[in-house]
Specification:
The protein is α+β, with helices and mostly antiparallel strands. It contains two helices and three strands, in the order H-E-E-E-H. The chain has one domain. Helices cover 18% and strands 19% of the residues. The chain has a three-stranded antiparallel β-sheet with strand order 1-2-3, with helices on one face. The protein is globular and about 35 Å long.
Length: 72
């Protein structure tokens, strides 16, 4: 399955990681251990499920995006 996903080009301007924050549990790539599929949402084993969005040029999961914009 991972080989098939590598053949699908990422859209221009897309991030290599689901969340750009290297300290985030969602800082994962397609094909990383424990990653199944690819798309606009991700779940952890504890049931935490998030989407992601662009914030100031960085693709961040909902949790990191909320923290990044909280001070505004």
């Amino acid at each position: 399955m991972a080989a098939l996903l590598q053949d699908i080009p990422r859209p221009l301007g897309s991030s290599e990681f689901f969340c750009s924050n290297p300290r985030c549990a969602f800082h994962v790539r397609v094909g990383d251990p424990g990653v199944d599929g690819f798309g606009d949402w991700a779940s952890l084993a504890d049931g935490t499920t998030v989407s992601h969005r662009w914030v100031d040029g960085y693709l961040l999961c909902d949790l990191c995006a909320r923290a990044a914009t909280a001070a505004r």
